[in-house]
Write a structure and sequence with these properties.
Elements lengths: L1 H16 L7 H13 L10 H12 L2 H15 L5
Helix pairs in contact: 3-4
């Protein structure tokens, strides 16, 4: 049981660090390039600009919309386990 709790706490601490935690530098770079090019961000049909536009309508602010789209972007990136 202690191995499980150690692993669990390690995963939680890693997740708190950065939204891009668990990705290599190359994977982060490729992901950002795709987002800037307007390609899908992990899930089909979910381009960064589209998510940003929807978030802007919902939250009423471009700044908040970018934060929401960024959070969705890093959440949807496929990670190797």
């Amino acid at each position: 049981m202690s191995k499980f709790s150690e692993l669990y706490s390690q995963i939680i601490n890693e997740a708190k660090k950065k939204p891009s935690a668990g990705l290599t530098k190359k994977e982060k770079s490729e992901a950002v390039k795709k987002a800037k090019a307007g390609k899908d961000m992990g899930k089909p049909g979910k381009a960064f600009k589209e998510v940003e536009k929807k978030a802007e309508k919902e939250y009423g602010s471009k700044e908040k919309a970018k934060k929401v789209a960024g959070a969705a972007f890093w959440k949807n990136i496929k990670r190797k386990k």
